[in-house]
Specification:
42% of the residues lie in helices and 15% in strands. The chain is built from 19 helices and 13 strands.
Amino acid sequence: MAGLVAAILVAAGCTVPAFAPRTDVGGEAAAPGAAATWRACPEVAEELVGRTAPGMRYECARVAVPRNWGGGTGATSGPGAGETFEIALLRARSTKQRDRIGSLLINPGGPGGSGVDTAVYLSFGAALGGLPASITDRFDIVGFDPRGVARSSPVECISDKDLDASFGYDPDPESQAAFDGFVTLNQRIGRGCGERYGNQLPLYGTEQAARDMDAIRAAVGDEKLTYLGYSYGTLLGATYAQLHPQRVRALVLDGAVDPRMGLIASSESQAKGFERAFDNFSRWCAANAGRCPIAPDARAAVTSAIDKARVSPVRGDGGREATPGWIFYAVVSSLYTEAGWQELAGAIEELEDGDPTDVFRLADAYAGREPDGTYSNLFDANLAVNCADEEEKPSREQIRQLQTRWRQAYPLFGPALAVGMLTCAEWPGGRDPYPTGRAEGAPPILVVGTTGDPATPYEQTPALAGMLGVGRVLTWEGEGHTAYPQTSCVTAAVDAYLISLTVPREGLRCPAR
């Protein structure tokens, strides 16, 4: 079970769910501005986890929101005017709840992660990696699938075949022919989404989703918002704070994204972050040879595995090939939690012995790929949101130059992060960038960062806090992506803030253990 909770923090740039949603929340959507109408839905937890958490009740609802918020009340003309999206909610409420404060709204990031799934996982308690009883006894835990994600009017425009091709593609296509092939693949993906959604593609951007959050706040009956956002969810929370500073009660932004970084800067930041995390893994491996079968040189073992796959990829069940891309994403997936390090070492050893099973398992958890080869809409939504947000659009020539430059500076991750920018460079439709200013009038906002975070490197934590002007930094000197609720120090600080609005002292740093 702890693995389930950790698995939701595997990410596509940020955080993503490991399991495709299956059970719809059902029910009639509350009209814009109306209170949510809840119905019992234990089946969601039963399908995700196999059972409900002891002492927890699960209720679901749907809320209608304008597709285009326009100036904040709904556009009267233009794309999506007069139409709505339906936002899926799940509420987990403890039977031991007392002195209720309100709702704690949850977003796991991605973009593309399911807050409905995350609320279920977090409801299973601290012993299993979920939220502590101190929180579930005082708050309803409310997860939502943002517009375009999972159960909320999902974006669906990328074929399983194209997703397989994208993930399996060489992460560093050196020859011009290989690079051009990746351009063509991304053009095909973009064209398919553009043909399906046309001028409504920008409506999946972050500012629109942050305005949905205020509709959710009103629908659940809270005067002010209490929110826990992981990774990309920190961008949603920061955007909300700028749009509605007077409606903020408490925001915890864990695994901070610096909103002022453009596409190139953020991609390079991630390249640095993953290289640093991989170096930490390599040092652990060398010092723990009994637990790391690819010791003493983990980097050489992984690099060799990718190089061999370029020539002769290992075949698994059904003839599926462990190409360089699948190995690369197995590495990426394993760096999101320190617990994944030993799994990665074992997977690389088994691949060397001719068995790619665990490489595929790790990579598929990242990709949201099911055993039958089908995908959730995780990456459809991820691209729709990221590309709607992004003003910067580097040229293919610029990306090609960065691929070469970053190969020297960040040899394992730099080229992939460079060519990964082709997705938005080839994406059709307009852009709808989010605001990047101060949250004037908001109360203190807690911004949490992990020093070994690969996906949202620690340097972005003080940057986000400084941009907001009311941010207070809490540092965890640990590994992996996001911090709460992983240690007693972090948990105590965050709980005190959420419950009593007690802000941690300036400069508080929590040890790794």
